[in-house]
Amino acid sequence: MLYGPGIVWEILCDMANRLNLTYEIENVEVEGWGKRFENDTWTGAFGCLKEGKAEILAGGSMMTPNRNKAFDFSDPIGYQSSSILIKVPIRENFVAQMLAYAFGWKIWLSIIGCFVLAGFAYRFIQNQNFGFTRTTQTSNILLAHSLVFFRGKKFYLTNHSLSSRILIATVWICSLFLMAFFGANLVALFAHGASKLPFETLEELVRLVKSGEYKLVLDIKSTGRIEMIEAFTDDPEFSKIITDKNLVILVDSLEDGIKTVQQYEGNAAFIAPSGRLRVLASLE
């Protein structure tokens, strides 16, 4: 038996239970499936089968011309990829919050800070120029706000001080870029889906399960699939999680796993075959 025998191994186990057969498992640790030499000898798993040390190879080996001539293969069983079933995240009301979501909170704080600084700068310039009407700080902040949303044309024409005009022109140009970025972010916001997935990779799911934010749901009749995922994942923490009863919910079938995800009060993630999940999703 090699890594991740998957459905082949599950079929053999079911046959052994139904026919009351006993068997002994031999793990192949070197050479993998094996190679064929010119004298018709094999190494690895095929070598064990050729020499009579094994009778059945449990696993999804590729059929090649040389292997097909030397060994009797069962009918090929197509590999089915795995998917993770979770509850649909709660959709947020983007109609009421779309203006706030166009920029992050740090950017909004920066914009507000720029309003205040522009108001201070304008007041300082006006105080240094005699003959102009002195203004309060509140009116200066409102002035900086109007420069952004009204382009500051009126204030530019009514100010004869060169330094004031330079400040107004600078804020005016910056407002053009700000409005352009704001509009682009709004377009991207509406184009993107309202629901954001809580995780994108298996490693991210493992971290959520370890932190207690998610429960991992596994089918006890599909251990081969979990073994394949465990063999190919680069995260060693996955092996620790699937053996921790506090982090895993075990079910007896695919239907029970789906019901568990739907009825579980918290967040749950069910690892299952993609094809069957798509079929059940289309039926519902």
Automatic annotation (TrEMBL):
GO BP, one annotated term: detection of stimulus involved in sensory perception
Membrane association type: Multi-pass membrane protein
SUPFAM superfamilies for the chain: Periplasmic binding protein-like II (SSF53850)
Residue ranges occupied by any Ionotropic glutamate receptor C-terminal domain in the UniProt entry: 105-206
Keywords attached to this entry: Cell membrane, Glycoprotein, Ion channel, Ion transport, Ligand-gated ion channel, Membrane, Receptor, Transmembrane, Transmembrane helix, Transport
Domain of life: Eukaryota
Signal peptide residues on this chain, from the entry's feature table: none
GO CC aspect terms: plasma membrane
Every Ionotropic glutamate receptor L-glutamate and glycine-binding domain range: 6-89
MF-aspect GO terms: ligand-gated monoatomic ion channel activity
InterPro entries on file: Glu/Gly-bd (IPR019594), Insect_Ionotropic_Sensory_Rcpt (IPR052192), Iontro_rcpt_C (IPR001320)
UniProt keyword Lipoprotein, yes or no: no
First-listed, main subcellular location of the protein, grouped into a coarse class: membrane
Transmembrane feature ranges: 107-125, 166-191
One of the Pfam families matching this protein, by short name: Lig_chan-Glu_bd
Classification via Gene3D superfamilies: 1.10.287.70, Periplasmic binding protein-like II (3.40.190.10)
Family recorded in the similarity comment: Belongs to the glutamate-gated ion channel (TC 1.A.10.1) family.
Protein name as it appears in the record: Uncharacterized protein
Organism: Meloidogyne enterolobii
Lineage, opening ranks: Eukaryota, Metazoa, Ecdysozoa, Nematoda, Chromadorea
